[in-house]
Amino acid sequence: MSKVNGMRYIADHDYHIHSTVSLCCHDDSQTPEAILSYARRNGFTSVCLTNHFWDEKVKSEADWCDEHDFSHVSSVLPLPQAEGTRFLFGAETDMDFNNIVGVSRERMELFDFIIVSTTHLHLDGNTVKTKIQTPEEAAYHWVDKLENLLKKELPWHKIGIAHLTTGHILKGRTHEVLPLISDKILRDLFSECANKGVGIELNVKTIGMSSEQRDIFMRPYFIAKECGCKFYFGSDSHKASALIGTKENFDHVTDTLSLNETDKFRLK
Ligand SMILES: [Zn+2]
Ligand SMILES: [Zn+2]
Asked: Which fold would CATH assign to domain 3-263?
């Protein structure tokens, strides 16, 4: 066994952050400069800006507002840089209700990293046709979207799958949804994720979690780890105050999952 195999995962990055360019960011101080200084304060060697993006070159029947087009997300360029910290240009995109992914092939080239969210299930009219009412429906879509994403031909080495245990799955009831997805289904899906080499996002607050919550919210990640998936951290911060305590939580998640450096998803 080489030395790196036993080396504890170093939380040295944050690959999911929004700035004022995302319409859901209402904090004027969440600028690229502020994000870079957050990264430096926490000793991160890389940080990635991932504002919401639906490529206007990708046609969709959904009711997307066109304010998250390329001119909008690229208005942050050039990103400020600092010695020892790479500031990467990324985006967070969605899959519409026809399972179309919101980035065209040519635009894919322009990003260092693309996060696809399969769990923005609250966006009826966009990601799902009609409003999801029950945990059963939400569980069906959770699985169906991930399955469909994995059938695509994408540059997997620079793709991440966002917040798989987010509250957006079903408002206030995500804890009822996740237990409906069996270990077997999770194993099949995460084995495929591991084959593709896609990054699995860790965006879950383990500090202060009860053991019951831990069983529900961490089970998918434990199974993903068993299947050989690679993980990256993402705070999904939309405001400066959300960046406080982030690194501490990343370290706590690392310990909860006993992650090693070999479990890390690395962007080139
Ligand atoms: Zn998201
Ligand atoms: Zn996000």
From this structure: TIM Barrel (3.20.20)
